[in-house]
Specification:
Number of helices: 4
Shape: elongated
Strand content: under 5%
Oligomer: single chain
Order of helices and strands: HHHH
Helix content: 55-70%
Radius of gyration: 22 Å
Distance between the termini: 69 Å
């Protein structure tokens, strides 16, 4: 039995359109923001004392840099906004069986949301 419905016309898409490219670029930009947040996190955390620090009597920061943690929060919120906007574009474009949702944007959204919530519970009382 032959299927004379949707499959008869075949695939008319000739490659990634503007929306598919935008979803990919939003994913890349979002993960770059996540990398920036990790670097800021490393700069904001207190210095961990090592053997050589104790041996040479070198003192380091013992408290968090709260200004940098605020920047981390803003970067996490920006990553969440990028993720949600990319997923909305993806949902609007999702019409065929072969279309799929971007797993990268879903993971970015979850990680960004968890990071922002962690910030609010961990550092919000400092301001």
């Amino acid at each position: 039995m032959k299927n004379f419905g949707y499959d008869r016309r075949g695939e008319r898409r000739r490659g990634p359109d503007v929306w598919r490219k935008m979803i990919s670029w939003l994913s890349v930009i979002g993960w770059i923001l996540m990398l920036v947040a990790l670097v800021l996190f490393d700069l904001a955390k207190p210095h961990m004392m090592t053997f050589f620090d104790r041996f040479f009597h070198v003192s380091g920061a013992t408290v968090w840099n709260y200004q940098l943690t605020l920047y981390i929060f803003f970067v996490m919120v920006a990553g969440f906004v990028i993720s949600v906007s990319g997923l909305l574009i993806n949902a609007r474009r999702h019409r065929r069986k072969k279309d799929h949702y971007s797993l990268s944007l879903m993971l970015l959204g979850i990680v960004s949301l968890l990071g922002a919530v962690y910030y609010m519970f961990r550092f919000w009382q400092q301001y």
